[in-house]
Amino acid sequence: MKKGFCVFMKVSLVMSFLLLGSFVYGATAKDASVNKPQYGEALTIATPTNPVCWDIGEWCWSIGKDMGFNMEHLLMGDLQKGPRGTNQYFFHDAGWIPIENVRGELLQSWEVKRNPPKIILHLRKGVMWQEKPGVMNARELVADDVVYSINRIKNSPKAIPLYMDYVGKMETPDKYTVVVNMTEWCADWWKGLGLGYVDAIQAPEQEKASGGAGKWENATGTGPFMINEYKDGHSLTYVKNHKYWDSEAINGKKYKLPFVDKVTRMIIKDEPTRIATFRTGKLDILREISWQQVDGLKKSNPQLKWNRALYTSNFTMAFRMDKKPFNDIRVRQALNMAVNKKEIIDKFFGGNAELHTYPFPSSFKSVYTPLDKLPPSARALYSYNPEKAKKLLAEAGYPNGFTFKAQIANNRQYQVELAEMVAAYLNRIGVKMELQPMDYTSWLSVMVKKNHSEGIFYGTDTGSPFTGIRKNFVTGQTWNPHMMADPYLDKTWDDATTNPNLTYEQSMEVMKKLAVYALEQAPALILPTPHLYTAWWPWVKNFYGEDFVGPQRDGPIYARIWIDQEMKKKMGY
User: Fold this and answer.
1) Is 444 left (phi over 0), alpha (psi -120 to 50) or beta?
2) Are residues 541 and 523 part of one domain?
3) pTM, rounded to two decimals
C-alpha cells in the first residue's frame, strides 16, 4: 500500500464543495438581546471525564478538548458560517468541518501547489505565546514553532499509520512562512495537518521544561485562555489571556476576545449530578443532555434555551473479525438480526434517536447511502429477524448459541443500559454476552493496544469521509476495533486517496462505495444514534448552541460568550 493519508481534490483559495447538511434541529435564532458585549465575570461548564493528555506527541483524540482553551491550530471552523452568521453549517460534528466552512486560525492564508506538490503556510503576525513561569517567556509565534509541532506529531512513536505520511521536508524561508513539501500529492492536507485531532501548535519550551510536555503545569499556548489550575476529578480552571490576538464582530463593531475573565470546567462524571448542578444555576451551559432529562428540566426551568443535535459518534458493538466466533460473517449477521432496532428507538429512546447507515451519518450527503438504497445483504442488518438469526448461527456451527465477552466504557450511563438491552435480545437466540464495564481510561487502553475482547462497545465520530473509512476499516489502524483486514478495501482506499488524476468528486464516490462494501461485511452490531441536547441560561450571550470549531475543540466558542450580569442577578443567581 502506498504511504499517504490524503485525497485529491481541486484546491485553491476559493473552493467549491457540496454543502454538508446540519445535525441541528430547531436551530436557535439570533439573540435579539445581544447588544454591547460585557467584559468580566466567569463562565462555568461541565465535562464527564478527566483530561487524558497535555502533549500533542501523545496522539490523544481529546487534545482538542483538554488543551483547546489555551492551544490553537492552523485552521478552525468559521463560526460566522453558522447560526450567528449565514446559517450554512451548525458546528455539531466532533470530527469534521467541510473546508468551505473553515478559516485560518494561526494561519493568515495558505497556498497549495500541485507541481511539485507543496503547501505554503502564511502565519499571522503578532500572535504571542503565553508567558508561563518556569516554562517560557512571552514571545511571538514563528515558523520554527510550526515545524517543531508538525515534526513532534509526525515522528511520535504513537503516530497513527498513514495519517501524516505525505509530509516531507519543511522549509522556513522567513519567520512567518512554512513550506511543507509533500512526498506525494495531497489536497486533503487541511484535515490532518490543520484541522485534525492532534495537530495543535505546541511551544518547544513545553517539552524542555521540568517534567516535560506531559505535565499540565507546563501547558501553555497562544489561545484565548491560560490554564491556571487542575484538580483531578474536580475541575480545570482557565483565566483570560489578555494578549490574545482574535476579535469578534458584534453589530458591525469588533471587540477583543475573550469576554469572560475565567472559565471553570467542572469534572462531574454522572449525569444526574450534572443536571442538579445546572438546574441551580451553578453551571451556565450544559451539553450532551440525554433525552431522559429534557422534559424534567424544561418543566423545572422554563427559562432555559435549547438546541438539539444528533450525537456525532456512532455507538456500535465492534466484532473482532480476527477471532472466533466473529470471524464468520454469518455470526455477525445473526447478531444484528437478533436486535430489534426499531423497538430500541421507540421504547428505550422514546423516539429520540435515528437509525442511519453505518459508518457515515446522513449529513455526509456526498458519501451517504440511505437505508432503502442499500444492497439486500447490508439492508438485512437493520431488520429484526430472530428466526433467520438462529438459522445463520446453526449454519455457522453454533446451533445452541455461544458465550462471549464484550467490554464497554462506563462514562455514559445510557450506553451501559443500551448494552444491557442488547444482551437481553441476544439471549433470546441462545447467545450469552458477558458485559464488562470499564472506566474510560482502561477501555481506551485495551482498545488501542488491541487487547479487547471478542466484542467491544465502541463510539467514535467518523472524521472526514476519507478518515472514516481509514480509521474504522483499513488494516492495522489504531481505531479499528473490528480488526478488519481486507486487501480489496485497503487497496481501493489507498488508490483513491493518493491518485492525483481523480477529481474530488470521483474520490468521494469511491468512499461512498467502500462504506457500503464495509457495511456488507457486518463488522459491527449497529445501534440507533440518539439525539442529545444542549441547554443554557438566558444570561449566556453570543452563544447559539455550537459545539465544536474542530475535533473536540470548543474553547474558541466560549471565548466569544459573555455573561449578562444584571440579568443573572435579576433571576436570583
Assistant:
1) alpha
2) no
3) 0.80
Is residue 369 in some structural domain? yes
Q: Are residues 78 and 222 in the same domain?
A: yes
- Helix (H) and strand (E) counts in the chain: 17, 24
Residues 517 and 547 both lie in one domain: no
- Same structural domain for residues 277 and 370? no
- Neighbouring residues of 302: CB distance < 8 A, sequence distance ≥ 6: none
Question: Are both 478 and 351 inside the same structural domain?
Answer: yes
Nearest alpha carbon to residue 312 among 350, 359, 379: 359
Q: Are 556 and 513 within one domain?
A: no
Query: What CATH number has the domain bearing residue 487?
Result: 3.10.105.10
330 in the same domain as 425: yes
Q: Which residues make Cβ contacts (< 8 Å) with residue 150, sequence separation at least 6? A: 164, 167, 170, 180, 193, 199
One pLDDT digit (tens) per residue for the chain, 573 residues: 444 334 333 333 233 322 222 233 333 445 545 578 999 999 999 999 899 899 999 988 888 888 999 999 999 999 999 999 999 888 988 777 888 899 999 999 999 888 888 999 999 999 999 999 999 999 999 999 999 999 999 999 998 887 888 999 999 999 999 999 999 887 678 888 998 889 999 999 999 999 999 999 999 999 999 999 999 999 999 999 999 999 999 999 999 999 999 999 999 999 999 999 999 999 999 999 999 999 999 999 999 999 998 887 789 999 999 999 999 999 999 999 999 999 999 999 999 999 989 998 877 878 899 999 999 999 999 999 999 999 999 999 999 999 999 999 988 888 999 999 999 999 999 999 999 999 988 998 999 899 999 999 998 777 788 888 999 999 999 889 999 999 999 999 988 888 877 877 888 899 999 999 999 999 999 999 999 899 999 999 999 999 999 988 999 999 999 999 999 999 999
Residue 3 lies in a domain: no
Note down the domain range covering 175: 24-284+537-570
Is residue 266 situated within a structural domain?
yes
Q: At which residue does the C-alpha cell 450506553 appear? A: 415
Cell 501547558 belongs to which residue? 219
Give long-range contacts, CB 8 A cutoff, 24+ apart: 279-283.
281/537, 281/568, 281/571, 281/573, 282/44, 283/44, 283/45, 283/46
Q: Could you tell me which residues come within 8 angstroms of residue 343 by beta carbon, excluding any fewer than 6 positions away? A: 384
Rounded to 10 degrees, the C-alpha dihedral 212/215/216/218 comes to: -30
Looking at the structure of the chain, the number of domains it has is 2
- Indicate if 502 and 559 belong to the same structural domain: no
First-residue to last-residue Cα distance in the chain: 60
